[in-house]
Amino acid sequence: MLTPKELKKYDKEYEKIIADIKAGKKDKAKLRKKMDVLAHAGYPKACLFIRAALLNGVEQAISEQDKAQFQRAANNLLKIAADNGDVDCQYAVAKMYEQGNGFLQNDREAFRYYLLAARNGDRTAQTNVARYYSLGIGVEQNATEYIYWNTQAANNGESIAMNNMGNAYEN
Which of 129, 134, 130, 137 is nearest to 113 (CA)? Predict the structure, then answer.
């Protein structure tokens, strides 16, 4: 996880690179290399920027092998951003593991990334964590955790969680 000081430093570098791209000032290879450095350091915005470029490459790739390679690289960058605290990426990676879309289906990894997003306040992830605890998917069943995470999601305005809590109290 990047420190606040590192994030601030990378924010400045990222904004400079973006400004240079918009101004057309520097050659693309140098700018790409600078963006790669930020992405491999785990800076989420750079990971997402390069992921978008890679996904664009998927659309333009000639062979299926090239498409698969671009897709794997894009997914790995999404995971780097998730591992460095980007809540939207944490949720996306969880969903990919849950569905086996982009990563091999893995309930434990799906739960792990949903839990990261839930702890960062994502109300849909909180509902999913509750569901995993309720059904024992990728984690041991735990009624206390089910109620806790549904309550968190409901308090954050998640209507599904509110409905779940109402059903739990009826039974």
Answer: 129
